[in-house]
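Following up on my earlier message about pyridoxal-5'-phosphate. Here are the inputs again, as you asked, copied directly from the submission form:
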Amino acid sequence: MQFSSFSKRFMGSAGILQLMQDLGEAMANGGEDVCMLGGGNPAAIPEINERLHRRMQALLDEPNRFAQMIGNYDSPQGEPRFIKALCELFRREYGWAISERNIALTAGSQAAFFMLFNLFAGAFPDGGRRRILLPILPEYIGYSDVGISQPLFRAVKPSIEERGAHRFKYRVNFDELTIADDVGAICVSRPTNPTGNVLTDDEIDRLHALAREHDVPLIIDNAYGQPFPDIIFKQVALPWSEQIILCLSLSKMGLPAVRTGIIVAAEPVIQAITGMNAILQLANGSIGPALAEEMTASGEIIELSRNVINPYYRARSEQALAWFDAALAGVDYRIHEAEGAIFLWLWFPGLPISSDELYRRLKQRGVLVIAGEHFFPGLEEDWPHRHECIRVSYAQSPEVVQRGIGIIAEEVKKAFGHQ
Ligand code: PLP
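Thanks, got it. Here's what our run produced:
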């Protein structure tokens, strides 16, 4: 059997594949004895699950609505009532001048990045080639391998602001950021996976201005942001203009399995996404929209995010930070400011082993994290910093997170020769 060159993208050692396989294996074993601090699975928040369960029950109890949910292909742009509810919510909350023609749904936002990156990078009719600019690393592991053509990225190392003895924050290094002719789009996740960074309003405004100046889209991956799921612990603005492609997701609301992503963008972008949806999969799944439509129309999705999801993760993040600070006493470590998302990003300056080796040692002890080096797509130089960091999710049960943190601290101390 011979596989095409295209297949190499999917059969290599993609970081996202390792991550999802680790997650799948841990879950297949019932998750017992494994501290799954690696994946991006959201927490099971009882109040949210209960609300979603009630909504599903209501759908099951309405035979016509149920038949519609499972028996029809949606339009390739996405389920129209959910799109209408989203449109009204964004207009109401943010005053954006958008219509339903500015919104499309995708099979999860991961699929949206596959589509968007290949719409704006690769070969162009003028004979040129363009890339996606990642103006600040580290960046989401799931972007790494979605490009049909390579190289896909241009990426810029961040500046590092050290804060106190044990915290730090990455900042966009605008001195090093140039928008060359081969840039097809700019992309940032905000809050950032893996670091929990939230780019400041000033950083976003400057990126937006650069996008306008060079007439390229600014893609903002808002999978953890406002208005839902609102896993963001800083007060920041959420801008939109025709220059911005805003990506949202129902996953971190507690619905990763329904695979529903949302794109808000200029009409030609939505038309292109609609075409790609039709060709790749005919239509999106209808269950996510059916579950979320009513709570989107009523605004309850915002209340649940603000009053349940946000405080839940904020408390979990503070707790995990306190456990790390206690467990790592005596070690040279820094943790990125936890401003949002569901991860802590730890940096061990001068770590004597690579973060990949640390990942392997932790896996042997039943603790799954993600090695930092996977989060630097497009970085051409081998920056030592990328081998000194790990990403740890704090979304699993507090007992699991606390046990995992204890083992991480032991292995890091061992690596530094402290024990
Ligand atoms: N963007 C970021 C920053 C993420 O962390 C994730 C998932 O973890 C995604 C996008 C993709 O999420 P989904 O495809 O479930 O919407």
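One observation from looking it over: The CA atoms of residues 211 and 218 lie 6 Å apart. Hope that helps, and feel free to reply on this thread.
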